[in-house]
Amino acid sequence: MNNKIDFEEIKNILGREGTYSKTIKNYEFRPEQIDLSEKITHALNNNQILLAEAGTGVGKTMAYLVPAVLYALANGPIIISTNTINLQSQLMEKDIPDLAISMPEIEFKAVLAKGRNNYVCKSMVDEAHQNILLATSPEFEKLKKWLKRTKTGEYQELNFSFPDWSEVASNTHTCKKGECPYRKAGECFYYKMQQRAKYADIVITNHSMFFSDLAAKSDDSYAGVLPREYSAVIFDEAHHIEDNAGKVYGAELSSYNIPLLLKRIRTRKSIKISEDLLKRLKDLNDALFEPIQKDFTNDYFLSEIYDALGEDNLKNTAKDILKILDAVIEELEDLKRGVEKDEKNIYEWLITTCMEIQIGLRSIFFNSFPEENFSWGETKPRNKYSKCTLHSTPIDVAEILKNNLWTLGVPTIMTSATLSTSKSEDGFKYIKERLGLTEEELETVQLGAPFDYQKNAFLYVPEDLPAPNNGKEYIKKISSIIEELIDISQGNAFVLFTSYKMMSEVYANIFLGTKYNILKQGDMSNEKLIEAFKKTENNVLFGVSSFWEGVDVKGEKLRMVILDKIPFPVPTSPLVKSKCDYIEQKNQNAFREYSIPNACIKLKQGFGRLIRTKSDMGVVAILDSRIHTQFYRNQILSAIPPCKGTKRLDRVRTFFEERGIK
After folding, report:
1. pTM summary value
2. Do 485 and 562 meet the contact criterion of CB atoms below 8 Å apart?
3. Distance between CA atoms of 38 and 404, rounded to whole angstroms?
4. Are 324 and 281 within 8 A, CB to CB?
5. pLDDT in tens, 590-614
């Protein structure tokens, strides 16, 4: 079905004199928004794939929401997928309600679809008397009281800590489906969400869940959470598609997986598995992960672990775990035969958990397709302990997307403020190659932000800095410049770093010497940091990758954005090195084809923090002299909006003085 929608109807809503402008306070008409909406309408009507870059301030969410609603009402539900919770909240709490107000004669339903582990399972709560820990837990008593008053059953609604949520959350393996009394009575939170999604016109989800759902449906068309058939897909924050698809179509195993399995077995009174087996499984898990956690931090290749700890040792330990898990599965199967039908689901859950751990072990240690996947690990601090996670990840998701996403046969819109690497004809070359798109099936559009960057933005790039790889000398120099810059702007600054290490060292150099309050990522949650930054004047925020995008601070509170250097991907990272090696094997230059384009997109994201409205103004400082000397300088500079710039610090001061900031 492809019932076309009329663009004139969209202009009647979003146009200069449209219903939206008459009903929504502080609405600003933006020609770019109309242009984007027209491109999206054309793609929907003609069953096309569209890459649409829309700069900050274009109003892209409304540009796709209006045609999406009209197209969904004419053809069936549309999926809108985002990368962040923040954007989902904006869509559900602001944009969609505003749209509904502006076109009251058009009725539509929108639902936020989350993964099932976000919802409490009432049957699992009922069966918690079998769980020794939960049965005596004060927090569990709080949960039961909460369960009586919650309308959604969502974890995010809890106002107290409940670390054992996974023991009561909805999951595929323990679900009794049609035999569940709560589902029959219409009281299952997850099922109610599914039903709302089934009959919704617009279904909001995230990239990870979208690809998980897509993978599940490849095995069973009735599986998954999202509607079985949808008329179109819209990806916002589309520059994250590659990473999310890679995670979903890969495999992983954490140092916590087996301890969690053992906890679930041991805390259930009715499950009597040989203690010798369980102890052996714990010892083997410790033997596998403890040496890795001791000797390796951050991220690393599996081959590095093999070199340090012995490949045969690790593989033999993995084989032993596989055998013990087989024995545990066998005992669980035997026990399952002797229980009532309504108790079998717990055993199925535990058996499937064992099998999932086995899949992770086989994928990581006995990878049958080394030319397609690579194995790596990461060790991260978690409370007082380290958490180690091993991964098997696709080197290139292009073929996966060709076979799974681009064959859906429905219009697909991908939009973001950062999809291209430049304004030239081949600006989309990088993203097209990463996502496996060909010219024949693709339309593209680039729309700049409706802001006067020449007037309101100023770029500062000093030319006398040491190279970033010059260690202490570089850190000492940029620390001094950062201190001067935040003094010139009187605080009200973001200082964005490419690594925690760099951020910590610069912070140590200047926090005692500056009169401004410095908020540093890691000292509190990101949400609370932004809240604190906005609360008072003259604050400075030090952040890393998560603050380079998706953070919206308007007005005088932010008038300086400092980037420590060109954000090239870390060449030693397993993810980056594997992709670069793969590109080199195809006789291409990985630095030109991957590292530079990747840095351009990241740089655009960082620059985009500064100007969020037509009245915003300020300076972006990039503390990397390579921009003046290296062959890629023009490519880097062409990625950011055209604005005036300088190499001199005194001209930065003049820029602010001319605007009354002294």
Report:
1. 0.92
2. yes
3. 28
4. yes
5. 999 999 999 999 999 999 999 998 8
